[in-house]
Design a protein that fits this description.
27% of the residues lie in helices and 24% in strands. The strands form four sheets. Strands 3, 4, 5, 8, 9, 16 and 17 form a seven-stranded mixed sheet that branches. Strands 12-11-10-13-14-15 form a six-stranded parallel sheet, with helices on both faces. A two-stranded antiparallel sheet has the order 1-2. The protein is globular, with a radius of gyration of 20 Å. It is of the alpha/beta class. α4 crosses α5, α4 crosses α11 and α7 packs parallel to α9 (282-290). The protein is built from twelve helices and 17 strands. It binds nicotinamide-adenine-dinucleotide (NAD) and zinc ion (2 copies). One zinc ion is lined by residues 40, 42, 62-63, 88, 163.
């Protein structure tokens, strides 16, 4: 029996297709009936054709919740009928890296690479697993990732615990924020919004966000709350940040943009049009150049595996610490579930759009082109 699933046909070309139902292939697998899934900024890198080895026929989607339909013989953590949220990292739970809490760097789930773990619904450089923008999805290592959604939790909050909230939180955590610090966040997409919100939890004294999409700046100003500026209306964002920080620079800069950055014609041409570098590292360049000497740059924006033009000389000469990773969602879940239950964080507030799965092509178009005030779109199957 077929199911409906998102289907990648090539850059900016996706559709809904009939695909075979996923099956248990290993005793630790589970099959989920998807209740809802999201489109993420990371999907946009795939959609824009920026990530090597993105194969035609792949189903995207690494942010999803669902009901357990079936489990393999070795699965004990969840059972049919359970409602679960699934971290975007596919992690074995027992390798050297998983044991250190580095679930985004699992050594077993992505035998094709030595850097990143497997992800659902990504290019084959992330293991080649199908994702959850579908009616059903196969969940490997089901004793590790899937987490039962607490009875009292809104399903939209659960959905945003699979990636966006943990990633924003880890961006702030990696920034090593000290009480009173000035934190600059590049990007007011879902991840940047969450990073700005979470920066306060770590003791920030001032939070400043940059983007060039006005409705997103308006949103983050209210939601974080924080100062927010449109970099298109500022001749030199680095100089501007120095001006507003007593010419010292920010204590912490967070890159929540990644390879699809705008704002620098040279990076756009070489990174996004000619693909001579792994996307445009414009936000990262601004972060390095506007952080204070001895400051910390935290990178959660995604870049491809090949090189980027990054001002490494300034990193050395300013004595900057760079911290970066894919978020380690399973490590952060217990803490963040508690924060959501206690009302400290309400991630569902960033959801602006809901589409039936059948309208996935339109949903990608609206999210990618930043139309209609879109911040976070949700896809609902069936
Ligand atoms: N490390 C992780 O675990 C992880 C997890 C999820 C997402 N991500 C990455 O985080 C990034 C953000 O994700 P998202 O869902 O918020 O994406 P998004 O595309 O919705 O948001 C990115 C925002 O950056 C803005 N922007 C573009 N150029 C900029 C610049 N030079 N300076 C400041 N802002 C700029 C865009 O206008 C947009 O609003 C992506 O690279 C995504 O792949 C990483
Ligand atoms: Zn995501
Ligand atoms: Zn592992």
């Amino acid at each position: 029996m077929p199911m409906k699933a998102m289907d990648y046909r090539g850059p900016r070309r996706i559709r809904v297709a009939d695909k075979p139902l996923p099956e248990i292939r290993h005793p630790e697998d589970a099959i989920l009936r998807v209740l809802r899934s999201c489109i993420c900024g990371s999907d946009l890198h795939l959609y824009h054709g920026m990530v090597p080895d993105t194969r035609v026929g792949t189903t995207f989607g690494h942010e999803f919740i669902g009901v357990v339909e079936d489990v393999g013989a070795a699965v004990t953590k969840i059972k049919p009928g359970d409602r679960v949220l699934v971290p975007f990292n596919i992690a074995c739970g027992r390798c050297t890296f998983c044991k250190q809490g580095l679930f985004g760097n699992c050594h077993e789930s992505n035998p094709m690479a030595t850097a990143v773990s497997g992800f659902y619904g990504y290019a084959h450089i992330a293991g080649g697993y199908h994702g959850g923008q579908a009616e059903y999805v196969r969940v490997p290592y089901a004793n590790v990732g899937p987490t039962i959604i607490p009875q009292d939790m809104d399903l939209d909050d659960a959905l945003l615990l699979t990636d966006v909230l943990p990633t924003g939180y880890q961006a702030a955590e990696m920034g090593g924020i000290q009480r009173g610090d000035t934190v600059v966040v590049f990007g007011a997409g879902p991840v940047g919004i969450m990073a700005a919100k979470c920066a306060w939890l770590f003791g920030a004294g001032r939070v400043i966000v940059f983007d060039h999409v006005e409705y997103r700046l308006d949103f983050v100003r209210r939601y974080a709350p924080c100062e927010a500026y449109n970099f298109k209306s500022i001749p030199d964002p680095v100089l501007f940040i120095k001006q507003i920080t007593d010419w010292l620079g920010a204590d912490v800069c967070i890159d929540a943009v990644g390879a699809d950055a705008s704002g620098n014609a040279f990076h756009t041409v070489t990174g996004k049009r000619l693909l001579l570098q792994a996307g445009a590292a414009t936000a990262l360049q601004w972060a390095i150049n506007s952080v204070k000497k001895g400051g910390i740059v935290s990178i959660v924006g995604v870049y491809g595996p090949t090189g980027n033009l990054v001002p490494i000389g300034n990193v050395v000469n300013k004595g900057i610490t760079i911290r970066a990773n894919q978020a380690s969602v399973p490590r952060l879940l217990p803490r963040l579930i508690k924060h959501v239950q206690d009302g400290i964080l309400s991630p569902k507030d960033i959801i602006t759009h809901r589409f039936p799965l059948e309208e996935v092509a339109n949903a990608y178009r609206i999210f990618s082109s930043k139309l209609d005030g879109c911040i976070k779109p949700v896809l609902i199957p069936g």
